[in-house]
Design goal:
- The complex is a heterodimer.
- Chain A has a single domain (about 1-10, about 20-235), classed as Rieske [2Fe-2S] iron-sulphur domain (Rieske Iron-sulfur Protein, 3-layer Sandwich), CATH 2.102.10.10.
- Helix content of chain A is about 15%, strand content about 30%.
- Chain A has six helices and 15 strands.
- In chain A, strands 6-3-2-14-1-13-12 form a seven-stranded mixed sheet. A four-stranded antiparallel sheet of chain A has the order 8-9-10-11, with no helix packed on it.
- In chain A, a hairpin with a 6-residue loop joins strand 2 (about 60-65) and strand 3.
- Chain B is of the alpha/beta class.
- Chain B has two domains: about 1-155 and about 325-395, 3-Layer(bba) Sandwich (FAD/NAD(P)-binding domain), CATH 3.50.50.60; about 160-270 and about 310-320, FAD/NAD(P)-binding domain.
- In chain B, strands 1, 2, 5, 6, 7, 8 and 18 form a seven-stranded mixed sheet that branches.
- In chain B, strand 1, helix 3 (about 60-70) and strand 2 (about 75-80) form a beta-alpha-beta unit.
- In chain B, helix 9 packs parallel to helix 10.
- The two termini of chain B are about 20 Å apart.
- Classes of the chains: A alpha+beta, B alpha/beta.
- The interface between A and B is medium-sized, with 30 and 26 residues.
Chain lengths: ~240, ~475
């Protein structure tokens, strides 16, 4: 079901013609609407067991690295169903369609955790970018239950494709396209929207050395599975305003 | 893009010729050639014409240039900047504090990367005059013509009005021996050298009167110099002489001063510097003191003004600020305070005087804080307006209708080992007269203190982010 939704997003482009399973480990597709397919990888917990969609805690920040070994993404099970068919616009004016959350209640979403403004992101040391639970306050926006970058105080709507709500960011966070399989397992398959991977790889070489054995390792694509942990486990310190 | 590239080459070539001409003249007549004569010779040549000319390659000007190219890559933009390398003022107090990794290279940037990336042109020259009737900017390398002019020239020091009795020589002498370090570059190096070589004794920081760039800067600097003195085992105090009792992020700074530095940081309010003797290393200031209780026959507290002297080991005399002289050259209507901000055309970054001249950064006559982040925000707004004007379209700034959340986020570092910081967030809104900022200084929920380690990390990330935006 979710799979089909996702295909609709990409239109009748390359993806319809070539199923991921037929091209081995990698599939790149770009239909000109800000979508890139990456290897389909399964989200696993720290012990290597599959993450189950129905067991994700509500309003909890989970982090996995995708599509590259060093590019963090947020996985969230929101408190209510997301909006549907949201038209979003990148900074350079390209429009794209964000279908909805996935899972039984359409509450599960995933976004690239690299700020679309100036690249703040969770690292093993600290995190400036995360979802702020409804019972907490944020300086970045009039209500919480939004994703906030505390570096420059941008807020993004977790229920609407990480659309920009306020602050200096000029475009949404990129979405990680995920699927929930029939056995309740979760898979990441691609990136929708304006990603910042190129700028990210240019900007954090010392960090790649510290955490990923250098830039070459950092730029490798994630394959087969992606370890997924809560943000508290991922980052030593969470900085949130 | 192609057209631009060609224009840039044209301009470059002509500049070289103009520079060569100056060089030859200089050789023939030795160094005795009056600078005016050289300027006049070079000034005569029109060396280029651009749709948009931006004066000033700082936080504001560079943002306008890159955002214009993002709006429409065919817009022909030239930035005129006198320095060939950039040094950041935001963050630079951590350099004086010798915080871990905050070395000079973290604050210095070259312009090559953004010029290549965005495709605007750059002319390194000093602006000598602006002729709005002919739409010309005169520089030491020749004349540049514009359709639209954007002024982001920053500040200048106003020693002349602050110390009317000082000779030109004394001003220059004080500028060298008690550097202000609010205009980045050599002054920061000089202040850093003075601190590195100091013996036991006091560091005096004088706070400018009136409006000035980066209002928290003197108070953050007190923290950073105090932490440096502690690390270097220098015995003495950091004394802030403040002509008013206003302290940006005041409660937060006072908390940090007291709890991190005890009586090492002393803030003297209503203290106005009047003179400096560099031989005896003494500052003279007037101090407005409240009269003792028994003398009071009045309802209001009464003050008397007394003259005082204090000796220093290092003096950081931050002079009163005024708009960069480029604003005077442009002959624009300015505010009647001592700073002379540019009067804006309503809810806009267009000037009131001339629809083809815009302003951003320190000189803007809105009630928004003069910070790097605000200049960055204003630059983005201004670029939208300029692009619309060039396209013959109308454009109203979103802030006219909807308040902007977090238009400014301004961090100050207050401690080292562990690093701790404080912050203020400003929301911007249009009040019918100017765009105004409303500030909020948060406390850390867990500790109940204004300062936190997280905020110090956020400061570093903010700085990385904003310089990344300008220079990568």
């Amino acid at each position: 079901m979710d799979r089909r939704n996702f295909l609709k997003v990409t239109g009748a482009g390359v993806l319809m013609a070539v199923a991921p399973s037929t091209v081995g480990t990698k599939l790149y597709a770009n239909d000109g609407r800000l979508f890139t397919a990456y290897e389909r990888v399964q989200l696993l917990d720290a012990s290597g067991a599959p993450i189950k969609a129905s067991q994700l805690k509500k309003e909890t920040n989970y982090v996995f690295n995708y599509p590259y070994k060093s590019t963090p993404a947020l996985l969230l099970n929101l408190d209510e169903a997301t909006g549907e068919n949201i038209t979003l616009t990148s900074e350079d004016g390209q429009e794209y369609l964000w279908k909805s959350g996935v899972g039984k209640e359409k509450t599960i979403v995933s976004y690239s955790a690299i700020c679309s403004h100036q690249l703040a992101h969770p690292t093993p040391n600290d995190s400036f970018l995360q979802y702020v639970q409804k019972d907490k306050k944020t300086m970045a926006y009039e209500r919480s239950g939004v994703i906030v970058c505390s570096s420059h105080l941008s807020a993004f709507d977790a229920k609407r494709g990480a659309q920009r709500l306020s602050g200096p960011a000029a475009q949404p966070l990129a979405s990680i396209v995920i699927e929930v399989a029939e056995d309740d397992s979760i898979w990441a398959v691609g990136v929708l929207g304006p990603d910042k991977f190129h700028e990210y790889f240019k900007s954090f070489k010392p960090e790649f050395k510290m955490f990923y054995d250098g830039k070459r390792e950092a730029k490798k694509l994630v394959s087969i599975s992606a370890p997924t942990v809560t943000l508290n486990e991922y980052s030593k310190e969470i900085i949130q305003y | 893009m192609n057209m631009n590239r060609r224009d840039a080459i044209k301009l470059g070539a002509t500049s070289v010729i103009a520079a060569a001409a100056i060089g030859v003249t200089g050789c023939q007549k030795n160094t005795e050639v009056p600078s005016k004569q050289v300027a006049t010779m070079a000034n005569g040549n029109v060396i280029g014409k651009h749709q948009v000319v931006v004066i000033g390659g700082g936080y504001g000007g560079l943002t306008v240039a890159s955002e214009l190219k993002k709006e429409n890559k065919d817009i022909d933009v030239l930035v005129i900047e006198k320095n060939e390398t950039f040094m950041s003022c935001p963050g630079s107090n951590t350099y004086l504090g010798k915080l871990n990794g905050m070395t000079l290279d973290k604050f210095m940037f070259d312009y090559a990367q953004p010029v290549e990336k965005y495709g605007y042109s750059m002319l390194h020259a000093e602006v000598t005059n602006i002729d709005r009737s002919k739409k010309q900017v005169h520089t030491a390398k020749g004349v540049v013509e514009y359709d639209i002019l954007v002024l982001s020239p920053g500040i200048a020091y106003d020693y002349e009005n602050q110390f009317p009795k000082w000779s030109k020589n004394k001003v220059e002498h004080i500028r060298r021996s008690a550097p202000g370090a609010l205009i980045p570059g050599g002054e920061h190096l000089a202040l850093d050298r003075l601190l590195a070589n100091m013996d036991d004794g006091n560091v005096i920081i004088t706070v400018p009167a009136g409006k000035y760039r980066c209002p928290p800067a003197p108070f953050e600097r007190a923290c950073m110099i105090a932490t440096f003195m502690k690390k270097e085992d220098i015995r003495g105090k950091v004394i802030l002489l403040n002509p008013s009792d206003k302290i940006s992020k005041g409660a937060a700074f006072k908390e940090s001063w007291k709890e991190l530095y005890g009586d090492m940081i002393e803030h003297v309010d209503f203290a106005t510097i009047t003179d400096v003797d560099t031989d005896t290393k003494t500052v003279t200031f007037t101090h407005k003191e409240a009269l003792p209780i028994e003398d009071k026959d009045f309802d209001e507290p009464q003050f008397k003004t007394v003259e005082k002297r204090v000796s220093y080991s290092v003096l950081n005399l931050i002079p009163n600020n005024k708009a960069n002289p480029v604003i005077t050259m442009a002959g624009l209507e300015v505010t009647d305070d001592a700073f002379h901000k540019v009067v804006m055309n309503g809810c806009s970054f267009q000037t009131k005087t001339d629809a083809n001249v815009y302003a951003v950064g320190d000189v803007v006559g809105h009630a928004i804080p003069p910070s790097g982040q605000t200049a960055n925000w204003a630059g983005k707004q201004c670029a939208k307006e300029v692009a619309a004007q060039l396209a013959g379209k109308k454009y109203a700034l979103p802030v006219a209708k909807t308040p902007v959340s977090a238009g400014n986020v301004c961090y100050s570092m207050v401690g080292d080992n562990p690093e701790e910081g404080i912050l203020v967030k400003h929301d911007f809104s249009w009040n019918g007269t100017v765009i105004a900022g409303k500030g909020y200084v948060p406390k850390d929920e867990a500790s109940g203190k204004y300062r936190s380690r997280g905020t110090a990390k956020a400061l570093r990330d903010w700085y990385r982010g904003i310089t990344n935006d300008l220079f990568s």
